[in-house]
Amino acid sequence: MALRFAHPAPEAYAYPMLIRHLLHSALDARSGQEIVGSDGRRHDYEALSHRVGRLAAVLAEHGVEPGDVVAVMDWDSHRYLEAYFAIPMMGAVLQTVNVRLSRDQIAYTLSDTRPRALIVHADFVAELEALRTALPGDCVVITCHDGTAASVEDSIGDYEALLASGDATYDFVDFDENALATTFHTTGTTGLPKAVTFSHRQLVLHTLAVGLAMGQQPCEQGLWRGSVYMPVTPMFHVHAWGLPYVATLLGLKQVYPGRYVPARLLALKRDEGVTYSHCVPTILQMILDEAGPDARLGPWTVIIGGSALPESLLRAADAVGITAVAGYGMSETGPV
To answer: Do the beta carbons of residue 195 and residue 113 sit within 8 Å?
Structure first.
């Protein structure tokens, strides 16, 4: 017998697996939580949605079309979260530039993708001048900062100023869920960095799978509606392991630390009540060194990846109240 199928009504919505539905789910949930930005700003999820629309409107106004690449060179910030949504939602492709690579390697990754726009933090403006030849002639540059602005001669403007003029009601339309959403370059192989791409479908499925897996963990290890999330994994690396998408889907309070400064990370943990993070072992060691052996940092679950979690680090974290949990995943398939 042949396979049988139900026939949907003509008005039924097909509900493609698009990133924008992750944000819509958070808005529908009305969690009442807030986003704490790397520059100290605070806003709720409705404001996040408006800022996503404004960013898309600004990019479209300056020539970004579906299929174009928009590159980002930034620390872990509220801006990066907005780019995670706005750029793929408009049908463009987000390139998360690994700012830890050498100048020549960064130039290679930019010449490989040929971005139509580049959002660059003030800390990397000096590098930008050396990267000009790697960028297409029509690439527009948007600068951003967390307190100290930098001047770029041909920049179209400052991120926040441009967003203030953007249209929050940008019309995001449906398209094929298999369309590319993001790209980055992995250095886990020999030779030059290799491009990796993810579709909307892949990222939505990854978000759902990771969210379900985290929700099934013991209470002291899991991620739940009351968690306060702060990434301490670079957002340029595999979407910070996909956790910003999960945190947004769940409507969690999210805290973005900017550049990793140990004292600032600990202050944010204390002041914002952070309970869930993720990082590599060296970052966790840096936090422990700053805190000292007599600190009391719990409750704080920290997923460790990038390399093996040494038993000595596990015990040192436990001694100050951090629950360290080993995670694993390949860059090409989405970690955790």
So the answer is: yes
Domain count for the chain:
2
Number of neighbours of residue 185 by Cβ within 10 angstroms: 23
Residue 92 lies inside a defined structural domain of this protein: yes
The β-bridge relationship of strands 117-121 and 69-73 is parallel
Q: Do 224 and 185 fall within a single domain?
A: no
- The enclosing domain of 251 has a CATH number of 3.40.50.980
Residue by residue, pLDDT tens for the chain (336 residues) are: 899 999 889 899 988 999 999 999 999 888 899 999 999 999 999 999 999 999 999 999 999 999 999 999 999 999 999 999 999 999 999 999 999 999 999 999 999 999 999 999 999 998 888 898 899 999 999 999 999 988 888 899 999 999 999 999 999 999 999 999 999 998 866 789 999 999 999 999 999 999 999 888 887 788 988 999 999 999 999 999 999 999 999 999 999 999 999 999 999 999 999 999 999 999 999 999 999 999 999 999 999 998 889 999 999 999 999 999 998 887 777 777
| Domain assignment present for 311 | yes
Tokens coding 184: 């980055």
Please, are residues 281 and 310 in contact by the beta-carbon 8 Å criterion?
yes
Q: DSSP letters along 28-48, please?
A: HHT---EEE-TTS-EEEHHHH
**Whether residue 231 sits in one domain with residue 175:** no
Domain with 90 in it: 45-197
User: The dihedral of CA 233, 317, 210, 271: what is its sign?
Assistant: negative
User: Do 265 and 302 belong to one domain?
Assistant: yes
